[in-house]
Specification:
It is a single chain. The protein is built from 3 helices and 8 strands; from the N terminus they run αβββββααβββ. The protein is an alpha+beta fold. Strands 1, 2, 3, 4, 5, 6, 7 and 8 form an 8-stranded antiparallel sheet that branches. A hairpin with a 2-residue loop joins strand 1 and strand 2. The protein is globular, with a radius of gyration of 15 Å. The relative contact order is 0.25.
């Protein structure tokens, strides 16, 4: 899982993010290249908030945004070099009852995890999960490969929800998947 976020991002498509009894297939991601990317939280260097992004690959970087939402990233840069992939959307797989309870405003199952803050709310991911080793068997949040390969030709376009470096085509998604963010 170590490598350039732009390479790791499409590789993460169709992996499964699991927290307890809840799980969803990753169907949309965005790459952030650390110090080389003005849109990355690590652009200006390591801070207590971004320290996880500078750690080894395979860890979860969770941040709070707009004073009310958690968002989750998979760290992928080599140890000491920041790089991460924002998980933007999941296709719900297991634990839908718990997800619906956590996301009562969602009208349809495809709306449970179709955005980075929504998926964190649906899975119950919070700042307490920041720094979790996603590959550890007993971790509360895990990244699992169930054998479903990433798409051969993922859809690709500009990142969304940012104000700088918007021209970079570092957003990837599973074409035709209904759970991709709108």
């Amino acid at each position: 899982m170590e490598g350039s976020p732009v390479v790791v991002a499409p590789w993460l498509l169709n992996k499964v993010l699991v927290r307890g009894d809840r799980a969803g297939r990753i169907v949309e991601v965005e790459a952030y290249k650390g110090a080389l990317d003005a849109a990355s939280h690590a652009y200006r260097g390591e801070t207590p908030r971004t320290a996880v992004m500078f750690g080894p690959p395979g860890y979860l970087y969770v941040y709070f945004t707009y004073g009310m939402h958690w968002c989750a990233n998979v760290v992928c840069g080599p140890d000491g070099q920041a790089g991460a992939v924002l998980v933007r959307a999941l296709a719900p797989m297991r634990g839908l009852t718990e997800m619906r309870r956590a996301r009562a405003a969602a009208r349809r199952d495809r709306d449970l995890c179709n955005g980075p803050a929504k998926l964190c709310q649906a899975l119950g991911i919070t700042g307490a999960d920041n720094g979790t080793d996603l590959l550890a068997k007993r971790a509360k949040v895990r990244l699992v490969d169930d054998g479903t390969p990433p798409p051969e030709s993922p859809a690709q376009g500009r990142r969304i929800g940012i104000r700088v470096a918007v021209e970079e085509p570092w957003r990837f998604w599973v074409a035709g998947e209904e759970s991709v963010s709108r």
